[in-house]
């Protein structure tokens, strides 16, 4: 998939929200959906296919309009977090331009976060993606929970973010950190435009 | 280097306020008379306050006022890097000479000198050298010299010896003025009051100020609502306006909760800024590519064409295509050079818009069908001066040209050095080359051998052979040099037979009579003798006169009969020596600013020698030079050109 197409003057960014089950990926998308004017958003959909009956994911297309002569479109996806939906996750990851890793800040879910992160890396490597340079940001969700239950963003950075990419504390339910995260990943993805634009297709 | 000056950074684009007035005045003074006002000029100030702009403005103005001025702009980082690279490459001296011609040197971000002792020493040397020579140095830094950590005390003193001046943060009015100028430059209509809001919220850094304006412009381009001071405040995150009670929440999706009504708009404006920055980045990329490939000598019309367009359809594809073509050219060149080293640097390999020509050239190299070296066009048979001593040879040459390959084949010209055999060979070759469909190879025996050796090395002897077998005329000079070179002789033998069989003309020249070519295989020698062997004798007076007249005619447009007669009467054993006399006379005439005459010739050629009044015998032939036949130098005339008096002395002493 082409990130920027000079011929048709289109910019399309596919951003995937990744993370363990119930960490708040879909909540992120719902919050964004709620803030986008009707004219700018498509239907938020869930898809299922014949090959994998349990396959489902969220998909939110955003039309950002024409920017610098380029018709700009964002496609936000979430993956099913549960461990056994890996085939779906791989499918959704295909052609992604950036990944938001939504971690559950609760201390007891640290293992799930790690497992999901490893799974992400394995899946990316399988697709031949260089995880070191791939645009990625972290969102530490549920920071609104009582402090004794959760890990702070600094602690989570230590545990998960060993590449030192951008990370955001968040409370997706009430919207804190949601747009910051989206902005963070978008900027990273767009900055790759100038660096390695595939010429065609 | 001067091209690194940003064309936008000029004095007229520099907004002057109280905080920077002094610095600007000093900078102007420096630009107007480099090296005499304040030297060095050291400007410091916080980031984004316009140091680089000021530096470049000095460069621009300096160049405008003093057109010949060499301006170099360099950042301290580049300076350090270049220095290290030069030292690493053992080119320290070359590096030091780098700024010898610079009349105005601009060094940006000097604060990076911190803890770099050796670079500081280098800079100290440079500053001393430039200030002594009255050449201007301007430097900028984000802090005063004394605050640059671990900066050499001597450097601090040098800076203080010039002028150290600071640029402060712009005041409110200057900020508004800067914003207005920016908005005007971008042809953006900004509603009244908005710029003032920006100037209030962002104080200090000009770069941030412009960034703030960018966000507003981006917001305006995607938002349906009109920009007003309140929205501006919101977009810039400056908190609620003191006067406005509440900002009216923009209409959002029905399910929107009250928190952050403008989150999406703000997101959108940020993304817009990022996208425009990235999309415009193509210009930078094109510029980069342009510089690089131009520097490597390639034709870059395709790339510069891009920059002329407002928004080309797919600049990256054009760059990629261009670079791919350059790679193809390089591959073709590498292959062609491998086959034929003489093709290195051929202009056909520098035009990515004409791959066909390069491809064709390489294809010909591959097939060995690039023509072998031809004759020099300087020599023409009809201009060859004829005299009794060379009449037979010249007539034979004309006859051979008229009836190629039938009358005299091969034609062998035998003569000692300097008697014109190369001249005649080349002239014959040219005469053949002028015929329709002719392909004439004309080269020295030495080169012929070299080519063969190279072909053997590259395992391309077959191609090399094919190349020569196609010629219609083969002319080889100094065939005696093939003595003892068995492999070349063998190749020549086969080539000889083949060409002879196909009715092609062969012409050779030799410094030795054919029968004396003992180092040549018998079969080859007999073949040489099978054609016509002609000899060029030592030039008699008539021939010398002809040659002198022609030379004088060529050089002066007319020939003075007395002078020509005198020169022709001078003893000379070869035509080259005769031409040497003419050359000496003309050189002397030029040096004395007189026109050449027989009198002058006498003076020049005879004067310093005792007994100069003795007339040289016109009929008596004397070499004029001592030549030992056993010596390595067969042709002493080649040397005496440089020592004319000595030659004369020797001649007179001999007598």
Tell me what you see in this structure.
The complex is a heterodimer of chains A (201) and B (655). Chain A has five helices and eight strands. Chain A has 201 residues and is of the alpha/beta class. The longest helix of chain A has 18 residues, at 178-195. The termini of chain A are close together. Chain B has 655 residues and is of the alpha/beta class. Helix content of chain B is 51%, strand content 7%. Chain B is built from 26 helices and ten strands. In chain B, strands 2-3-4-1-5 form a five-stranded parallel beta sheet, with helices on both faces. The longest helix of chain B has 33 residues, at 263-295. Chain B starts with 20 loop residues before the first helix and ends with a helix. Classes of the chains: A alpha/beta (201), B alpha/beta (655). The A-B interface holds A 4, 6-7, 9, 11, 32-38, 40-41, 64-65, 67-70, 72, 174-175, 178-179, 182-183, 186-187, 190-191, 193-194, 197, 199-200 and B 221-222, 251-253, 255-257, 259-260, 263-264, 266-268, 270-272, 274-276, 278-282, 284-285, 311, 313-317, 320.
Instruction: Extract low-pLDDT stretches of chain B.
Output: 240-260, 609-634, 636-644
Largest interface: A-B, 36 and 35 residues
Largest sheet of chain A: 8 strands, mixed
Low-confidence segments of chain A, ≥5 residues, pLDDT <50? 48-54, 197-201
């Amino acid at each position: 998939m082409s990130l920027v197409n000079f011929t048709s003057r289109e910019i399309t960014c596919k951003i995937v929200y990744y993370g363990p089950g119930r960490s708040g990926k879909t909540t992120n998308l719902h919050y964004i959906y709620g803030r986008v004017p009707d004219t700018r958003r498509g239907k938020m959909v869930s898809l299922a296919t014949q090959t994998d009956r349990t396959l489902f994911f969220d998909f939110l297309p955003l039309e950002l309009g024409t920017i610098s002569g380029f018709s700009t479109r964002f496609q936000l996806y979430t993956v099913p977090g549960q461990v056994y939906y890996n085939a779906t996750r791989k499918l959704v990851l295909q052609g992604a331009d950036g990944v938001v890793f939504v971690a559950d800040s609760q201390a007891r879910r640290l293992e799930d976060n790690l497992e999901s992160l490893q799974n992400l890396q394995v899946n990316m490597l399988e697709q031949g993606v260089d995880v070191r340079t791939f645009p990625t940001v972290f969102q530490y969700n549920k920071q609104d929970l009582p402090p004794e239950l959760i890990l702070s963003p600094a602690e989570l950075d230590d545990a998960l973010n060993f590449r030192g990419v951008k990370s955001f504390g968040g409370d997706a339910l009430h919207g804190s950190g949601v747009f910051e995260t989206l902005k963070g990943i978008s900027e990273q993805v767009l900055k790759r435009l100038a660096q390695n634009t595939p010429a065609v297709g | 280097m001067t091209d690194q000056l940003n064309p936008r950074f000029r004095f007229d684009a520099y907004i002057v306020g109280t905080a920077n007035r002094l610095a600007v005045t000093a900078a102007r003074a420096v630009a107007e008379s480099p090296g005499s006002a304040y030297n060095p000029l050291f400007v410091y100030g916080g980031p984004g306050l316009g140091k680089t702009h000021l530096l470049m403005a000095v460069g621009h103005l300096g160049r405008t006022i003093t057109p010949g001025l060499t301006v170099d702009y360099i950042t301290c980082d580049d300076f350090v890097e270049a220095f290290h690279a030069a030292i690493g490459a053992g080119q320290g001296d070359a590096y030091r000479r780098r700024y010898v011609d610079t009349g105005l040197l601009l060094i940006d971000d000097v604060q990076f000198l911190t803890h770099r002792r050796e670079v500081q020493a280098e800079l100290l040397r440079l500053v001393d050298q430039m200030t002594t020579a009255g050449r201007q140095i301007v430097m900028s830094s984000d802090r005063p010299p004394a605050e640059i950590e671990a900066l050499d005390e001597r450097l601090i003193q040098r800076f203080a010896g010039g002028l150290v001046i600071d640029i402060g943060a712009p005041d409110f009015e200057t900020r508004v003025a800067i914003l207005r100028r920016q908005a005007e430059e971008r042809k953006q209509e900004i509603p009244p009051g908005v710029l003032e809001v920006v100037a209030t919220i962002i104080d200090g850094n000009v770069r941030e100020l412009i960034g703030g304006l960018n966000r507003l412009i981006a917001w305006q381009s995607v938002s349906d609502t009109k920009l007003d001071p309140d929205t501006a405040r919101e977009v810039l995150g400056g908190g609620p306006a003191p006067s406005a009670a509440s900002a009216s929440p923009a209409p959002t999706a029905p399910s929107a909760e009250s928190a952050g009504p403008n989150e999406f708009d703000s997101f959108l404006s940020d993304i817009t800024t990022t996208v425009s920055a990235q999309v415009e980045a193509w210009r930078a990329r094109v510029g980069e590519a342009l510089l690089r490939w131009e520097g490597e000598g390639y034709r870059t019309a395709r790339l510069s064409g891009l920059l002329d367009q407002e928004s080309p359809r797919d600049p990256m594809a054009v760059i990629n295509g261009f670079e791919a073509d350059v790679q193809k050219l390089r591959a073709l060149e590498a292959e062609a050079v491998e086959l034929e080293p003489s093709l290195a640097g051929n202009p056909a390999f520098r035009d990515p818009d004409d791959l066909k020509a390069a491809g064709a050239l390489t294809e010909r190299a591959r097939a060995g069908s690039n023509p072998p070296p031809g004759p020099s066009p300087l020599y023409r048979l009809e201009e060859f001066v004829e005299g009794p001593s060379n009449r037979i040879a010249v007539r034979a040459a004309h006859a051979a040209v008229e009836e190629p390959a039938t009358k005299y084949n091969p034609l062998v010209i035998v003569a000692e050095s300097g008697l014109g055999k190369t001249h005649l060979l080349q002239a014959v070759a040219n005469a053949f080359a002028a015929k329709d469909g002719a392909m004439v190879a004309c080269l020295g025996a030495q080169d012929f051998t070299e080519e063969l050796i190279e072909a053997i090395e590259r395992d391309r002897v077959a191609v090399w052979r094919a190349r020569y077998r196609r010629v219609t005329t083969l002319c080889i000079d100094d065939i005696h040099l093939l003595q003892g070179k068995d492999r070349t002789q063998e190749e020549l033998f086969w080539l000889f037979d083949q060409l002879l069989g196909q009715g092609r003309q062969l012409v050779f020249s030799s410094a030795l009579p054919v029968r004396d070519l003992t180092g040549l295989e018998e079969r080859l020698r007999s073949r040489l003798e099978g054609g016509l062997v002609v000899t060029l004798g030592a030039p008699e007076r008539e021939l010398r006169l002809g040659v002198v007249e022609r030379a004088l005619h060529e050089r002066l447009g007319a020939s003075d009969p007395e002078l020509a007669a005198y020169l022709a009467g001078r003893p000379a054993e070869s035509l080259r020596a005769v031409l040497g006399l003419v050359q000496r006379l003309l050189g002397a005439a030029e040096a004395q600013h007189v026109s050449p005459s027989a009198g002058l010739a006498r003076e020049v050629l005879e004067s310093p020698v005792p007994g100069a009044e003795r007339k040289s015998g016109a009929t008596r032939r004397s070499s004029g030079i001592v030549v030992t036949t056993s010596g390595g130098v067969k042709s002493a005339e080649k040397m005496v050109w440089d020592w004319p008096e000595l030659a004369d002395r020797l001649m007179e002493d001999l007598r």
